[in-house]
Amino acid sequence: MIRRLIALGFLLWFLGLIWFAIFLPQPADVAIKTDAVVVLTGGPGRVQRGIDILSANGAKRMMVSGVDPSVRRAELEEAVNIPRKLSRCCIDLDKASVDTISNARETARWLSGHEYKSVRLVTSDWHLRRAELELRHSVDGSMKIVGDAVPSSFSLTQLFMEYNKLLARFIALEIGGRF
Known about the structure:
The protein is an alpha/beta fold and 179 residues long. It has one domain (25-178): Rossmann fold (3-Layer(aba) Sandwich). It has helices at residues 2-22, 46-55, 73-80, 84-90, 100-114, 128-138, 156-175, and strands spanning 36-40, 61-65, 91-94, 118-124, 144-150. The two termini are 27 Å apart.
């Protein structure tokens, strides 16, 4: 009986991994408007996606979460080709976040401080599910979150690790929080 339960558990885990890999989140429709856009650093194309949304008036303001503390605004503007006027008026840099959990907590503080009710969350396709899970647990339940996945190149190892992190956080937040 124990062997069967272990085999069933492994089969469910494996099928979940296959589902996770095949059905990665996709970019959100650019026509969707939100109060804010939050970009999690760490992969190519993320900041540019946020700039494109902000430039198209898809959001009022943008926060780039997880910026290295040594990076100056002018360096970021130059590296990502952000228009200085747009950067100074409408983009905030979060230098306190170091991981997905702190990204979610800092984002929640920022959203609350601006009294925003909706946010577009921009990150890599393989990372979006866990980032959304963390953010949903950090914000008011009425916050509308639009996931916006930036297609990326990833290794099987990275995908495997991210799937297991998602499972662990889901268990901790969704199942463990009920007991």
